């Protein structure tokens, strides 16, 4: 089995009925690119830049960030890298920066894009560094934790402002760098159609989407038995986001753990997901599932799952689909 997986590395991620699926890798540090390239990922679908800020007293300056992003962009040799802007706060607290004082509910607090908009002095150097790296490779910007249109507009304004300042300084960047938003707050999934006209792509962050939809702290072991990617509410929000993307003709990816769990590949394909981003270690298994899938029958299967009210029955249906195809 292992040998078969290794041989899959160079195989294309295409379904039995010829649909092309894109499999990307998630990385946390530039050094992780190697594993992504070895797994033949189509690029990086999620670069968690906050890891550059953690375990140190001072945030990295623009130059240090530029070097890190440029290194990743270069190592990918023309394949895209989706650089997610800083997602600090909640489960990724920083010590020493003095910005994320512990609050009662950090996951609901000043986190990710909220923190960045609250503190433009923290955000601007990152935007400059990402934009500069866009002159070196195929860089895309991704905004975490969007929950309102207004927030998105404020980010887009800052990006424009940063571009103008780079232009004045004669720094190179890609003026048309794609900007996408993460859908990981239920509000964003429910109003994805309102975000879509202003974005180049969506990426569904199921780790947080599940946490916020089901009101389950993702790091609290006591409630982890309730953490269920197949909860009907979660599946409906995923389906809504995919529909909004289809209508607005922008691609929808998924970069939460659900995308890298081979148990869910068939259901996600059936719901219409075409771009998966995951830890490189699970990429070949997911590819194996993609290549064994018939999209048309999976679409029928997904419609049936969406109509199934009871979670146990949903799990049974998904198990059955996986057993039948193994
Ligand atoms: C997610 O929430 O699904 C996600 C990909 O982001 P993170 O796990 O870094 O919060
Ligand atoms: Mg998240």
TrEMBL record:
One of its GO terms (biological process) is phosphoenolpyruvate-dependent sugar phosphotransferase system. Its cofactor is Mg(2+). It comes from the Bacteria. It is found in: Cytoplasm. Phosphoenolpyruvate binds at residues 48, 84, 207-208, 218. Mg(2+) binds at residues 184, 208. Keywords: Cytoplasm, Kinase, Magnesium, Metal-binding, Phosphotransferase system, Pyruvate, Sugar transport, Transferase, Transport. One of its GO terms (cellular component) is cytoplasm. Its main location: cytoplasm. It catalyses: L-histidyl-[protein] + phosphoenolpyruvate = N(pros)-phospho-L-histidyl-[protein] + pyruvate. Its EC number is 2.7.3.9. Residues 5-293 form the PEP-utilising enzyme C-terminal domain. The active site is at 255 (proton donor). Signal peptide: none annotated. General (non sugar-specific) component of the phosphoenolpyruvate-dependent sugar phosphotransferase system (sugar PTS). This major carbohydrate active-transport system catalyzes the phosphorylation of incoming sugar substrates concomitantly with their translocation across the cell membrane. Enzyme I transfers the phosphoryl group from phosphoenolpyruvate (PEP) to the phosphoryl carrier protein (HPr). Belongs to the PEP-utilizing enzyme family. This is Phosphoenolpyruvate-protein phosphotransferase. The lineage of its organism: Bacteria, Pseudomonadati, Pseudomonadota, Gammaproteobacteria, Acidiferrobacterales.
């Amino acid at each position: 089995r292992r040998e078969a997986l290794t041989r899959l590395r160079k195989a294309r991620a295409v379904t039995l009925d010829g649909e092309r699926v894109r499999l990307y890798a998630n990385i946390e540090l530039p050094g992780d690119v190697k594993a992504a390239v070895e797994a033949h990922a189509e690029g990086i679908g999620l670069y968690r830049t906050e890891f550059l800020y953690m375990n140190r007293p001072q945030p990295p300056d623009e130059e240090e960030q530029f070097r890190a992003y440029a290194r990743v962009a270069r190592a990918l040799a023309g394949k895209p890298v989706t650089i997610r802007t800083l997602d600090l706060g909640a489960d990724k607290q920083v010590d020493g920066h003095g910005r994320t004082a512990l609050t009662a509910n950090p996951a609901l607090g000043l986190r990710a894009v909220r923190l960045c908009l609250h503190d433009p002095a923290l955000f601007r150097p990152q935007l400059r560094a990402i934009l500069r790296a866009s002159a070196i490779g195929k860089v895309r910007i991704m905004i975490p934790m969007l929950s309102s249109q207004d927030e998105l507009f404020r980010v887009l304004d800052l990006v424009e402002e940063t571009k103008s300042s780079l232009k004045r300084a004669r720094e190179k960047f890609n003026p048309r760098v794609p900007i996408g938003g993460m859908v990981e707050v239920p509000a964003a999934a429910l109003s994805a159609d309102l975000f879509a006209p202003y974005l180049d792509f969506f990426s569904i962050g199921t780790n947080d989407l599940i946490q916020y939809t089901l009101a389950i702290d993702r790091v609290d072991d006591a409630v982890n038995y309730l953490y269920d990617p197949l909860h009907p509410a979660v599946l409906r929000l995923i389906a809504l986001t995919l529909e909004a993307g289809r209508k607005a003709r922008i691609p929808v990816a998924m970069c939460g753990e659900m995308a890298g769990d081979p148990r869910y590949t068939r259901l996600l394909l059936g719901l219409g997901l075409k771009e998966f981003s995951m830890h490189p270690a699970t990429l070949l298994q997911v590819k194996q599932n993609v290549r064994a899938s018939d999209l048309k029958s999976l679409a029928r299967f997904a419609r049936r799952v969406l109509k199934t009210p009871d979670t146990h029955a949903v799990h049974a249906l998904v198990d059955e689909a996986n057993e039948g195809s193994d």
